[in-house]
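Q: Sequence in, structure out?
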Amino acid sequence: MKVHQTDFSKGTVSRNIISVAIPMTAAQVLNLLYNIVDRIYIGMIPGTGQTALGGLGLCFPIIMLITAFTNLFGGASPLCGIALGKKDEKEASLVMGNALSLLLISGTLLMVVGLIFHKPILYLFGASDSTYPYASQYITIYLLGTLAVMTALGMNPYINSQGFARVGMLTVVLGACTNIILDPVFIFLFHLGVRGAAIATVISQTFSAIWVLKFLTGKQAVLKLKLSTMKLSLPRVLSISALGFSSFIMSFTNSLVQVVCNKTLQQFGGDLYISIMTILNSVRAIAQTPVGGLSNGASPVLSFNYGRKNYKAVKQGIWFTTAIGVTYTFLIWGIIFFFPELFIRIFSRDSALIAKAVPAIHIYFFGFFMMALQFSGQCAFTSLGKAKNAIFFSILRKVIIVIPLTLLLPQMGSLGVTGVFLAEPISNVIGGIACFGTMLFTVMRELTRKEKEHAL
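A: Exactly. Output:
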C-alpha cells in the first residue's frame, strides 16, 4: 500500500492543517458512526425502541470512561510531534511504545472491573427496571472488546502525528463501514436487538485495531512499534500521562456530567427524558465532530512548528483554526435551530418524544458557536504541551459550571428538566470566553515574545 505523508516543514500552516484535518474529520465522522448507527437502529426497533434507546444512553458514561483512559495515553501524541520537530525519532518511538503498554494495562483493568460491577453502576447512573436489561445487554458485550477499542482509538493519533492522516482515516473507515454493514444483520436479521449492536461494534473495532498495529509495525511507518519501545519508563509515563490528562479530563468529565444529567432527568422527567438526552447528545456529537477534527488536525502541525521554533506559524495556525471553528459552529447552530425535527427524527419517530425534544434541543444548542472558542483554546494549550492549562479549563466547564447548574437549575422555580438543558449553553459561553481569553493573554503573548527573541 502506498501512503501519503504530509511534510509539516513545507507549505503554509493553513494548508498543512487542512491537509491533516480533512481526513481526520472524515475519520471522526466515521468513528462517530460506531455509536450513532447503533442508536439509529436501536431507536427504530418496533415497540421497544424508545426504552432501548434510553438503556443505551445509560451506557454512555461507561463508554466515555473507557474513552477517557484511551485519551489519557492517546492524547499524548503531541509529544511525538514535538520530538519529530526536534528530529528525535528515538524519543518519539519510545513515547508511542509506552503509550501502547499503558493502553493495554488500563484496558484490561477497566474490562474486569466493568464486567463485575456493571449492574450497580448502571443503577447508580440512573437506570430503571425498564431500561436496565437493555443497558446490561449492550455494555457487557462492549466491555469484552475494551482492548480492541482502546488500541484502535488510542494508537491512531500516533499515526496522525507522523503525518499519515489518510492512513489514520482508513483505520476508522474500515471499522465504521464494517459496523454499518453488521448492525442491521445482527440487530434485525439475527434478531439480537441491543446485543447485536454491541457485537457489531466490537467486531468492527477489532478490525480497526488490527489495521493500526499492522501499519505501526510495518515498513512504511516512520516510527515503528517494537517490544523494546514498550518497556515502561517512569519519567516517560509521567510525561505521557501529564499531557494526555487534559484529554482524559475532558472525557471523564463528560462521563460525570452525563451521569448527573441522567439522574436528574430520571428524577424530574423519567425514562422519556433520558431517551431525549440520548438524542441530544447524539446530535451534539454530529455537530461538533468537524470542530474536533479541525482541532485534532491542527494539533500535530502546531506541535511540529513549536518544536522547530517557528512561532509565527504556530500563531497563524491558532487563528486559522479559531476562525474556521467559529464560522462552522455558528452555521450549524442556525440549521439545528430552524430544522430541529430533521435531526430528532434520525433517531426516533415517536410523536410524544418529538414534541418534548424540540424545545429541549432549542435550549440545549443556544449559543453553540461559543463552544468553538473552548476547542481552539484547548487545542493551543495541548499542542504546545501546556497540560495544566488544558486540564483546568476542562474541569472549569464541566465540573465547576455544568454539574452544579444541572443540580441547581431544575429546582429553581418550575424549571424542572428545562434546567438540565440550560446548563449546557451557559457553560459554553462562560467556558469558551474564559479558555480562549486566557490563551490569548498567555500563549499568544509567549509566542510573540519568543518570535522576537528568535529573530534577534
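The chain is about 80% helix and 0% strand.
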